[in-house]
């Protein structure tokens, strides 16, 4: 360890350490004075102006008291702030590795840019991945693989109580609000969705005129602020909602319970980003932060949530209604499931948002340390619905760092019905990951309300890129599905993907992840005891845990080695997995997902 860290009274290395330090600290300021004096002596106006401005800046730095660095290092201290402002760009273009994700790697962004621009996305000279690294995953191709002609993979969302089911793509635009994104970005996304035949989630900031301009299919997201359908006190206004929800452009209604970027906190749109248009669209006042509360006022229990879902379905004319959440306390979601079963009334869909999501800004602690990651959250929701015997009643969407065909295929293999992407489509309209979304200074005009900055985003050309990115990503998905020997991504199963463990062994995802048995939760017979315990804790009348019920369950339960009931070749008869060159144990993820066959 250096002597300077252990010796409390070190001897100075120089005879005049203080004088030397002063000279070093003020050397840049001194150089500016010399430059100014040289300009005066030589009567050189260029030197006079440059030196004078530098001297003035140095004097200001010495007089100000806000920044100690500038006081100690006048003029030179500004270099630190310049480098700090451009740190993301310097890191992206000069320092980071092609595979380093912060939060998206250069290779991931390049893939989106290439597909959006309709240029080749192939690479040469082999993979950059370490194929022997812990966690590496890959699809197992089939000996009977063949190309798929129809690449427009679609599903139908809508349950028994839904009168207007929605035919939608398996890859859609995730929730991003007007206000967080610029008007031009919203128009480009919606026009691209219209061109490509996929669906655009409005985000909780309400449906703006820019969402409506090109007529692309919309999912209207209702957050805790009920923007676009709220009264003067910020509560839900049924009449205002009904008036807007019956619009034919609105295809589905989504209640946002929580979001991946900051689950449990609500949201904030800074006052400096609120324009008169945003204020009118959201029905909020100008000049103050637009705050979404942390929780809803329209319901306070799981049972009331189920009633609210049906109310929205009725007010919208029978359109698909569901909710989005980032999983937090597991028994709370199970309480909602119990309330659904009691009422025999189910949402048409649920979207699981991973904690790795987030297109805007959030506190670091919430981004890093609150909320469940996507895979864990999705599998919990999926297994709960399977264990409750109602998985076939509800479609499941997922969102969270999904940008490639592999990302989509992997999640569909685990049991999802469709995938959403937010940042992927932001890249398609020009985002460069400058990470300045919350500052209103986005350099590409994507996440800003500055009229001059967003003017640089050309709507027609960016809309083409949005549509191309979607089309080419589905082509990539089709290539994977065909290579596995299937005809539609809904046929993908967890055993089609292998994963390397930290000890070098390889496991299929069907063995790596836990998949519950159909109806197992109803009689507390799940193979994972923690699922039984959380199910017992869930109370349909409250979001609070029923700890008394858990204590009673633990007292009465016995570890008797529950039967697994895992499906095998002999027990799969009821589900036709179609031609599958890698068929092993049938429908592992316990989903029966009807898909729209290709038109001849």
From TrEMBL:
* Stretches that traverse the bilayer: 29-60
Recorded superkingdom:
Bacteria
Write the Enzyme Commission number(s) for this entry.
Answer: 1.4.1.13
Residues of the Glutamate synthase domain = 162-486
Keyword entries, A-Z: Membrane, Oxidoreductase, Transmembrane, Transmembrane helix
* InterPro entries, per the entry: Aldolase_TIM, GltB, Glu_synthdom, YerD
Which PANTHER family does its entry note? ARCHAEAL-TYPE GLUTAMATE SYNTHASE [NADPH]
What family does the entry list? Belongs to the glutamate synthase family.
- The name of this protein is Glutamate synthase (NADPH)
Which source organism does the UniProt entry give?
Psychrobacter cryohalolentis (strain ATCC BAA-1226 / DSM 17306 / VKM B-2378 / K5)
């Amino acid at each position: 360890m250096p002597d300077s860290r252990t010796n409390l009274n070190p001897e100075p290395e120089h005879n005049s350490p203080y004088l030397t330090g002063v000279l070093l600290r003020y050397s840049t300021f001194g150089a500016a004075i010399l430059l100014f004096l040289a300009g005066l002596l030589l009567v050189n106006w260029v030197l006079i102006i440059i030196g004078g401005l530098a001297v003035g800046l140095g004097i200001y730095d010495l007089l100000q008291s806000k920044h100690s660095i500038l006081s100690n290092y006048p003029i030179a201290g500004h270099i630190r702030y310049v480098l700090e402002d451009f740190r993301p760009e310097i890191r992206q273009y000069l320092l980071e590795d092609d595979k380093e994700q912060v939060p998206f790697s250069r290779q991931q962004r390049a893939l989106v840019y290439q597909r959006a621009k309709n240029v080749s996305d192939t690479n040469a000279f082999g993979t950059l991945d370490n194929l022997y690294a812990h966690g590496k995953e890959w699809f197992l191709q089939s000996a009977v693989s063949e190309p798929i002609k129809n690449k427009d993979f679609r599903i139908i969302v809508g349950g028994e109580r839904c009168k207007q089911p929605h035919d939608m793509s398996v890859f859609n635009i995730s929730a991003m609000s007007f206000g967080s994104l610029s008007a031009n970005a919203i128009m480009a996304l919606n026009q691209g969705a219209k061109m490509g035949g996929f669906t655009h989630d409005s985000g909780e900031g309400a449906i703006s005129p820019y969402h409506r301009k090109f007529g692309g299919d919309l999912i209207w997201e209702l957050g805790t602020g009920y923007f676009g359908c709220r009264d003067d006190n910020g509560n839900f206004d049924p009449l205002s909602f009904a008036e807007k929800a019956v619009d034919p452009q609105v295809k589905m209604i989504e209640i946002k319970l929580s979001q991946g970027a900051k689950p449990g906190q609500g949201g904030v749109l800074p006052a400096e980003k609120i324009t008169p248009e945003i204020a009118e669209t959201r029905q909020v006042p100008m000049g103050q932060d637009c705050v979404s509360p942390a929780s809803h006022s329209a319901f306070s229990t799981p049972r009331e949530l189920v009633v609210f879902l049906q109310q929205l379905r009725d007010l919208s004319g029978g359109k698909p209604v569901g909710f989005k959440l980032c999983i937090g306390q597991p028994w709370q979601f199970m309480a909602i499931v119990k309330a659904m079963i009691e009422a025999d009334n189910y949402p048409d869909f649920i979207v699981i948002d991973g904690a790795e999501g987030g297109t805007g800004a959030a506190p670091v602690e919430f981004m890093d340390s609150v909320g469940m990651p996507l895979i864990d959250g999705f599998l919990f929701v999926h297994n709960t619905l399977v264990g409750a015997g109602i998985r076939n009643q509800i479609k499941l969407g997922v969102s969270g760092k999904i940008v490639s065909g592999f990302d989509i295929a992997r999640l569909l293999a685990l049991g999802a019905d469709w995938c959403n992407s937010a940042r992927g489509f932001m890249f398609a309209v020009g985002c460069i990951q400058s990470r300045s979304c919350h500052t209103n200074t986005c350099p590409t005009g994507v996440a800003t309300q500055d009229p001059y900055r967003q003017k640089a985003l050309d709507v027609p050309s960016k809309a083409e890129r949005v549509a191309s990115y979607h089309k080419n990503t589905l082509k990539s998905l089709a290539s994977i599905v065909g290579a596995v020997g299937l005809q539609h991504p809904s046929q993908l199963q967890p055993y089609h993907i292998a994963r390397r463990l930290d000890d070098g062994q390889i496991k299929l995802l069907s063995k790596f992840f836990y998949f519950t048995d159909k109806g197992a939760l109803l009689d507390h017979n799940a193979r994972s005891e923690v699922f039984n315990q959380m199910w017992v804790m869930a109370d349909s009348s409250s979001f609070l845990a029923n700890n008394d019920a858990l204590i009673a369950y633990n007292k009465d339960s016995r570890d008797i080695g529950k039967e697994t009931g895992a499906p095998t070749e002999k027990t799969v008869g009821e589900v036709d997995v179609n031609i599958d060159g890698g068929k092993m144990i049938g429908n592992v993820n316990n989903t029966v997902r009807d898909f729209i066959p290709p038109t001849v």
